[in-house]
Amino acid sequence: MTDLSTYRLSRTENIIFCICTGIAGLMISYLMYRNILFAPVIIPLAPRLRTAAEDILADRRRQRYVDEFKDFLFMASTSIGAGRSMKDAVSEAIPSLKRIHGSNSILACELEKAYERMDVGGEHDITVLMDLAFASGLEDVYDFVTIYSICKTTGASLIIALSKAASVIIDKMTIDREIKELVRRKESEGLIIFIMPILVILFLNLFAPDYISPLYETLAGRIIMTTVVAGAAGIYSMIQKIVRIEI
């Protein structure tokens, strides 16, 4: 099972990251110092930038997984309500997920591995689903598998319990999505604050180069520019901490 809590850039993504980082370094160096020789200053920040990029991609992958799992809940509860086993429900959900979310559906790939373990390997469905839940690192997936496990081992009504559990989990996912949308808007506002000093400097370079030239020709000006860069980076880090909300 794929661990969704971490993300590692692929070879292609690494190349794209290096190119983008180099271009960003050159642009910042020229804009802030009018000298591309300052571009290597960004190299010490590369590990943090890489970690930030991996975190963003991991969060997007988890969000895709959540959206797909929401559809799987409908499919699984419907199949089990019709008297099918969990293994059959998983098997039937795979092509449906691929039709809805495309052939590169994350959950469909995970369910294919789970079904193979249950069908070919003969592993118990609860064991396989628990591995799926732990690998996802998502509380909603773990809650669903836990309820299924309790119902199956205690003999409780699986159909009623799973239907109610799916309804509650889906409502929680909907609220979670709404909150994330609000947070994303605030993050966009923070990004505007982050890029505003850079835009002001760019504007002055284009329309009033003589006015801003002392910032490039004196030591005090260099220090001010460095302070602006450091301040912008600090603001962005602060914004990221503020908008991080765990539900």
- Extract low-pLDDT stretches: none
From the spread of the alpha carbons, the general shape counts as: elongated
Category by helix and strand content: mainly alpha
Work out the helicity level.
over 70%
- What profile does the largest beta sheet have? none
Would you list the SSEs in sequence order as H and E? HHHHHHHHHH
Count the strands?
A: 0
Beginning-to-end CA distance, first to last residue: 24 Å
Nearest-angstrom radius of gyration?
A: 25 Å
- Count, helices: 10
Averaged pLDDT, please?
81
Report the β-strand fraction as a percent range. Answer: under 5%
Describe the protein's topology.
Layout: H1 11-33, H2 46-81, H3 86-101, H4 106-119, H5 125-136, H6 139-154, H7 158-207, H8 209-212, H9 214-217, H10 219-243
Helix pairs in contact: 2-3, 2-7, 3-4, 4-5, 5-6, 6-7, 7-10
